[in-house]
Amino acid sequence: MPAPRTPGYETVIGLEIHVQLKTASKMFCGCRVEFGAPPNTHVCPVCLGLPGALPTVNRQAIEFAVLAARALNCELHQRTVFARKNYFYPDLPKGYQITQYDQPLASGGRLDVPSESGGEEGRVEIRRLHVEEDSGKSLHDRFPRQTAVDLNRAGVPLVEIVTEPSLRSPSEARGFLVRLKRTLEYLEVSDCNMEEGSLRVDANVSVRPTGSEQLLTKTEVKNMNSFSQLEKALDYEAARHIAILVSGGTIEHQTMLWDPARGEARPMRGKEEVHDYRYFPEPDIPTLELDQATVARLADPLPELPRQKLQRLMDEYGLPSYDAEVLSANRDLADFYEKVAEAATDPKEASNWVMGEVLAASNDLGVPVTELGVEPVQLAELLELIAAGTLSHNLGRQVFRRMVETGNSAGRIIEEEDLSKVSDSDQLKAWAAEAIAENPGEAERYRNGEEKLLAFFIGQVMRKSQGRADPGRLREVLGELLND
Amino acid sequence: MGIDRSDVEKVAELARLRLDEDELDGLTRDCQSILGFFEAIRRVDVESAEPAGALDHAAPTREDGVDQDPLTEPLDRMAPAWREGYFVLPRLPALDAEDLGGDGG
Amino acid sequence: MAGSADFTVSELREELRSRRLSVVDLLRATVEAIADSDAQDPPLHAFLSVGGEELFELAAALDRALDEGDEIGPLHGIPVAVKDNICTHTLPTTCGSRILEGHVSPYEATAIRKLRAAGALIVGKTNLDEFAMGSSTENSGFGPTRNPLHRECVPGGSSGGSAAAVAAGLVPLALGSDTGGSVRQPASFCGVVGIKPTYGRVSRYGLVAFGSSLDQVGTIGRTVRDAAAALNVIAGVDRFDSTSTDIPVPDFAAGLDSGLEGLVVGVPREYFPDDLDARVAAACRSAIERLEKLGAEIREISLPHTPYAVPAYYLIANAEASSNLARYDGVRYGRRSSDAESTVAVYRETRGSGFGREVKRRIVLGTYGLSAGYYDAYYGTGQRVRRLIAQDFERVFSEGVDVVFTPTSPCTAFRLGERVDDPVQMYLSDVFTVTANLARLPAVSVPIGAVDGLPVGGQFLAGHFDEPSMLRAAHALQEGSA
Lengths: 484, 105, 482
What we know:
- Chain A is α+β, with helices and mostly antiparallel strands.
- In chain A, 39% of the residues lie in helices and 20% in strands.
- In chain A, strands 3-7-8-11-1-12-13-14-15 form a nine-stranded mixed β-sheet. In chain A, strands 6-5-16 form a three-stranded antiparallel β-sheet, with no helix packed on it. A two-stranded antiparallel ribbon of chain A has the order 4-17.
- In chain A, helix 5 (306-317) crosses helix 6.
- Chain A is elongated and about 95 Å long.
- A two-stranded antiparallel sheet of chain B has the order 2-3.
- The radius of gyration of chain B is 23 Å and the shape is flat.
């Protein structure tokens, strides 16, 4: 539950986001990138930090980073330099991380995010975007009293995206991250999977009297493994700051670890030594040069981004903003929708179906819409059958489920499973007569003027017909019989 | 700019070097005399000079292919301590596992 | 015969090709000569490890190939010694450090792969100052190497083992590494030829890093021609080293005999200071006279930033070294201090007990020079002075100078123990060699005379990737003084 806002204070949040790039091989060597492989199997002289090994730059990683930087409206730098960040940690094989420091790939960008109140959009300023290598993993609970080191992840390419402290609430931070994730997914540069660690977020939090321009002492919050946990953690931390300030205390600059189970952030113990990373230019990699032609080839034009997609869904298909928002949440879903809408007559109806039945099936089965086994044009055919009155809505839903189960077309399922709508009057009359006979009390009340009970009888007949009764004809038939 | 014993001590900690007391004294003396000798460099007017660093050629980049330089020795033979596929080392028992999260990439 | 004795590489190649000599016999003689050199009192101790049975199997296979008239490359059957900071998977790679005692590299350096592809036999790994940090080979964690010409003297360093092995006639060729003179200075002290190629000419993949922006693999031979032939084998761009340069590799041995007519030799006055050992200065003057007689044009030049080269060099090299040596933490390879009880203690103890004094000194200085508040004053200034030194050379080469001639070292081989307690004096022995590394230029040391039975080396430097000019000059001088 979000902490109640204390009047008179505002929250200032800056984010540092690490995003794993979706390359086949690591940043500086040819080792495979694979989540969940047996420990220390994707390692080589380079990522083990063996004496004498040297890094070589993965072009695809740079190209992904260029795309991300352009999508975030950053300025790309023609000459960029890798740097060494020196510190000791068991999962840091070389004793330094190859990253970028004073000459990053890109800087000075922005991403527009919806405001909390649904009013005007906010704009989050991006300070910088750079490329670096991931560390390995230290497992402290694998063996008693030992740290176990797995270097499969060591050297996996990352971009680090740093925002200015321009976010004013935990929910705004979350909104930004949703937009950022969506953007990176559209670009297909990252899986952005927080559970697998391909998207990791650290936050700097401070609070200050509303209206003040001053930046007070901040704390760093780590270990937030979902967007909702992030929002909770930031709410918690901001409330903690305010409580300290209100009681006349001072904020201590420290790193806090979020504990999702207990719903609290605790200061990190132990390794709060003063960091002195001794950055200097990486002598093993010459300056990286990005010429205009390469950038143009990669990012000119950029693939359609979520905001453009959203706008286009509204403009081109006349969808309400809610529909456009839901459908543009990921590129596959939006693409699926567009293919349905193009093949069907009614784009809004197509939207209802994709947001409803299609997403439900995708969630139930835990597969993306592209793997449901129903082609968009097959869904469009089904929608046309419903529009033509061949199938009722209810029956249409049944047919869709069978399509998902069997992979067959709507036409074939209707034919094979005898599911076409029954509008034959004799059959309808027979079911209607049965229903009236079985419910004499309701029939009596109807005749005494309780007309809404017609729906009750329609339901009864629908059940008998397993949904196949044509509701329009049935209404007429029931009316005639009840009024006799 | 002088370097004193406490500087050497601090730097040795940063570099994870255990030094015994005699070593610390000796190193302090050595560093003082070496840094004193290096002071000559301050006579150079470096204002006009950009730091050297970049090579003449730009960084070459490689295709994103799985192309591993294979290891001719198994890791367990090379590692000082190895257990079930992991490099292992002792950790501070006082620290909770969760408090030892990496440096965050 | 004692090893390869006084044979040149081409003579040995002819002996092997004609089958007057077998690869196995040559190898056996080499291995025995190495053993003999270590059995003497005091031992030469040029090698830290020597190949065994599998090396003889390889030699037998090379013999069979020759029997069938099949020569796999220009070094077919030639025994080569390799400095122990270049990775080989057949023999340990210790860098002369206790911290890597027994470490066998699970991959091989590009230079080694190329040597093997050329048919060379890697007979053994040679002694060095720990992690190539030193100028005398006294900083080896496994005891010093001695100068084969005078066993009370040092062979120079850090490639002292390689230079001693060649000078003692144990092998005709050796690889070294040169960060600030570590190939050329020991070549000079031992009376052999040592080449430091242009930075980027030879792949550094598998050369254990000391100062990454300065390190190059170099070759040592008894003649310029031999050292040049070995350079031919190991040179070239490498996809595993982004700092190697994609530029054609000429045949370094081809133009050696074309003479010095028209060659402009610059002699920088800063390399002949008043306090230079008079006998070294005299040897250089006589070499300059010979160059002139051979047709070269001698031109006095100035490289004004030379006096600041040694501080600039050490500021940069130590900083890079402090980072390069961070990986020796006892986690993945090498030796770990076994009684350490926590992660941090493993680091402190392993590094504290595994590194020798000079290495610790440089790690401390390098860490200090990069740390907050000192970066600009130390590392930053070093890199700026480096640029000025490079510009000095660019200017003289643009003014028509083809090669620059200097003494390799201000002195001849000194006695063991003479300088170990005076690091500044030790650093100053690199004064004439560090500039080539700072400016990334090629340089070669060639014997030009002797003082009291100890050799004096002269150094030629040339423009980037212009090894042929400097090798031509060095060859003419060596042939002319024969």
